[in-house]
């Protein structure tokens, strides 16, 4: 039996961002689903009570409520923190973790901890000045070297919403280090200047339970390379079986 895919969108996005990949996975015979995390369905909701653990708990409740097992859980960007924590807490339901150009969860550390201190302070100030939301990038930022066409960048910018700010400032909570999970990491090469990866992602390469894959595209591969991404994901699921 083929595994079920559950795709988590990254910062500022909802389930809609995964549609090009969902269609391709379903054509390959997979049960593929995506979820919009709380606070990201619209840009006007009060997000004061939404933190990282809110998103983790919501995905755990979905897995249990739908009776899902043998799941390939895919996290993009911010949702690497969510996927990693969900897999940590529900190893009986998540068979394999896939992180697509994603941040890694580390015990007691928030996502913004990987930013230089000055940039971290700037982002926290932006969140405070925008009603508790982390503002989405505009089309110029989105299209800068990331393989998006100008039309794609404009469409994406028009649909992204401010991200609940507490989620990127709240520390992750893990029972065991991410390295002990069975997982895959997908690197999008055009996101990295001179091929440099974050130190924690580089360290993950040495772990025997993790494998790495590369796509020659930018940090929005579900739009810029949905076919190659679906191929990589289906290959990962087949090997995980």
Summarize the structure in words.
The chain has 241 residues and is of the alpha/beta class. The protein has one domain: Alpha/Beta hydrolase fold, catalytic domain (Rossmann fold, 3-Layer(aba) Sandwich), CATH 3.40.50. It contains 10 helices and 8 strands. The protein has helices spanning 19-27, 52-65, 79-89, 117-129, 139-142, 150-159, 166-169, 199-204, 221-224, 226-240; strands spanning 4-8, 31-34, 71-76, 94-100, 133-134, 163-164, 183-188, 210-215. The strands form 2 sheets. Strands 2-1-3-4-7-8 form a 6-stranded parallel beta sheet, with helices on both faces. A two-stranded antiparallel ribbon has the order 5-6. α1 links the parallel β1 (4-8) and β2 (31-34). α2 (52-65) packs across α3 (79-89). The protein is globular.
Please give a handful of descriptors for the protein shown.
241 residues; alpha/beta; Rossmann fold; six-stranded parallel beta sheet; two-stranded antiparallel ribbon; 10 helices; globular
SSE order and pairing:
Layout: E1 4-8, H1 19-27, E2 31-34, H2 52-65, E3 71-76, H3 79-89, E4 94-100, H4 117-129, E5 133-134, H5 139-142, H6 150-159, E6 163-164, H7 166-169, E7 183-188, H8 199-204, E8 210-215, H9 221-224, H10 226-240
Parallel strand pairs: 1-2, 1-3, 3-4, 4-7, 7-8
Antiparallel strand pairs: 5-6
Strand order of the largest sheet: 2-1-3-4-7-8
CATH class: Alpha Beta
CATH superfamily annotation: Alpha/Beta hydrolase fold, catalytic domain
CA gyration radius, whole angstroms = 17 Å
Task: Could you tell me the CATH topology label.
Answer: Rossmann fold
Kindly, what is the distance between the CA atoms of the first and last residues, rounded to a whole number of angstroms?
A: 9 Å
> Averaging pLDDT over every residue, what do you get?
94
Number of helices: 10
Major sheet: 6 strands, parallel
Kindly name the structural category.
alpha/beta
Strand proportion: 15-25%
Percent helix, as a range, is: 25-40%
CATH architecture term: 3-Layer(aba) Sandwich
The domain tally reads: 1
């Amino acid at each position: 039996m083929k595994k079920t895919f559950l795709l988590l969108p990254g910062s500022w996005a909802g389930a809609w961002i995964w549609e090009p990949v969902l269609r391709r996975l379903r054509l390959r015979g997979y049960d593929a689903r995506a979820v919009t995390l709380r606070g990201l369905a619209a840009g006007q909701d009060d997000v004061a009570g939404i933190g990282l653990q809110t998103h983790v708990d919501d995905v755990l409740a979905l897995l249990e409520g739908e009776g899902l097992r043998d799941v390939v859980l895919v996290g993009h960007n911010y949702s690497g923190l969510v996927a990693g924590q969900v897999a940590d807490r529900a190893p009986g339901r998540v068979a394999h973790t896939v992180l697509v150009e994603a941040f890694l969860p580390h015990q007691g550390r928030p996502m913004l901890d990987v930013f230089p201190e000055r940039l971290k302070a700037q982002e926290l100030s932006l969140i405070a000045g925008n009603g508790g939301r982390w503002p989405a990038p505009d089309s110029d930022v989105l299209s800068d070297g990331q393989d998006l066409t100008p039309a794609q960048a404009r469409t994406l910018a028009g649909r992204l919403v401010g991200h609940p700010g507490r989620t990127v400032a709240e520390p992750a909570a893990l029972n065991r280090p991410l390295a002990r999970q069975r997982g895959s990491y997908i690197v999008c090469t055009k996101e990295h200047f001179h091929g440099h990866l974050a130190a924690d992602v580089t360290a993950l390469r040495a772990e025997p339970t993790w494998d790495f894959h590369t796509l020659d595209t930018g940090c929005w591969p579900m739009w810029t390379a949905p076919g190659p991404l679906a191929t990589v994901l289906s290959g990962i699921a087949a090997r995980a079986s």
